[in-house]
Amino acid sequence: MDFLAGIRGQDFVMLCSDTSAVHSIVTMKQDEDKLVPIDSHKVFAISGEAGDRVNFTEYIAANVRLYSYRNGIDMSTKAVANLTRQELATALRKSPYHTNLLIAGWDAHTGPSLYWCDYLATMHSQNICGNGYGSYFVLSLFDKMWKKDLSQDEALEMMKKGIQEVKARLVTAPPRYIVKVIDKDGTRVVAEV
Amino acid sequence: PGKKTQTMSYDRAITVFSPDGHLFQVEYALEAVRKGSLAVGVRGSDTVVLGVEKKAVAKLQLSQTVRKIARIDEHICLAFAGLTADARVLINRARTEAQSHRLTLDEPASVEHMTKYIAGVQQKYTQSGGVRPFGISMLIVGFSSEGAPVLYQTDPSGTFSSWKGSAIGRNSKTVREYLEKNYAETSGRETIKLAVKALTEVVEGTSSNIELAVIEAGGKGPRFLSDDEVTDILKEVDEEKGAAPAGGNGGQVA
């Protein structure tokens, strides 16, 4: 089962996902990056049905890009999150997207943002969030460890402890994970565990 | 007695053939283009340049909101001559098509594809009910998938073709003639200078009258030259013009 986690820090957001792409009992890929860039300073951590994941992300990304060409300025993370939720909501009673996602971004005026979104188009802005069975183990851990003005090192420490917990306690824990950070300099990989 | 109301029908064509085979609406659209401010495009071996005449803005108007060179996608930009509002509609369609192409094919649209699309839209409006043609010609630039710089031109009729150098808008005939006489395969800064030389045949050579966009090899996309960079190029062009005596009337026959 897909594992996704997000931590909002002082001036950055840290995201983690596992890297297995599974179909039934077969692991198709061990290096699937589920932290998909939407633009230079925004990332979707997306899990769920295979086709929907890719289709939905590409659809949102294309419209976010179009907005920036039409208006000469990038959409804010809040705007992207709300657009995403609106698309999920509209499709819900027609042909739902079966995907759960975390939306993370950094904006010049508002700093780091992190949103949790599920396939029913529920959306919450949160400091820590997660998706998948693994999240049950890490959320309480993060609750204890999170504090305001978290530094990147502290957040990475938290994330690594969370991954350790998932590996130790989840019976079908994925073997490999990728961790990324979004801040004023954009997106980059900070760990592959 | 029942009143019969007349409803307007929007399926009547406006662009229709004249007895001698002309589409006058298209030709009138070309007139509108000829009245628009000048745009020049020059293709080099590794660079392609767009230069436009910056229309004089009213005192209280903010000049930075009057843009004549538009970015269509990461790697394509275009300049236009003619009705600005019509251009806005076409540019919007082009931008949407660029993202739609990326979404469907997971690949950026080629400059040729974009040109064919824009020209296709322009043609549709010469053969549809209730609409008039766009009063716009466009110069579209970018790099082909083989890595060569390309320059395309479209017209209100919907025709398009690839050019080494072209001009549209006010005084474009003079500029095109200059390019025909003086075009040489250039590269890098020389291509920019050629475009500037062509532009300044009919436009005053100051950074407040000229806007330049350059696409160079290396896949970095279009770059808009700053006012300082434009002034530098203009100075270089001026110096070169001063160094070579004009007209060749140096030798006198005794």
What portion of residues of chain B belong to β-strands? Answer: 15-25%
Instruction: Tell me the span between the first and last alpha carbons of chain B.
Output: 98 Å
Radius of gyration of chain B over all CA atoms, rounded: 21 Å
The proportion of residues in beta strands of chain A is 25-35%
Could you name the key traits of this structure?
heterodimer; A: 193 residues; alpha+beta; five-stranded antiparallel β-sheet; 4 helices; 12 strands; 36% helix; 35% strand; B: 254 residues; 6 helices; 10 strands; globular
Describe the structure.
The complex is a heterodimer of chains A (193) and B (254). By secondary structure, chain A is α+β, with helices and mostly antiparallel strands. Chain A is built from four helices and twelve strands. Chain A has helices spanning 50-71, 77-92, 133-145, 152-169, and strands spanning 4-8, 13-18, 21-23, 26-29, 35-39, 42-48, 99-107, 111-117, 123-125, 128-131, 177-183, 186-192. In chain A, strands 10-1-2-11-12 form a five-stranded antiparallel beta sheet, with helices on one face. The model of chain A has no long low-confidence stretch (mean pLDDT 95). Chain B is α+β, with helices and mostly antiparallel strands and 254 residues long. Helix content of chain B is 34%, strand content 21%. In chain B, strands 8-1-2-9-10 form a five-stranded antiparallel beta sheet. A five-stranded antiparallel beta sheet of chain B has the order 3-4-5-6-7. In chain B, a hairpin with a 5-residue loop joins β5 and β6. In chain B, α2 (84-105) crosses α3 (111-124) and α5 (189-199) packs across α6 (227-243). Mean pLDDT of chain B is 90; it is low at 246-252. The A-B interface holds A 58-59, 62-63, 65-66, 69-70 and B 71-73, 92, 95-96, 98-100, 102-103, 106.
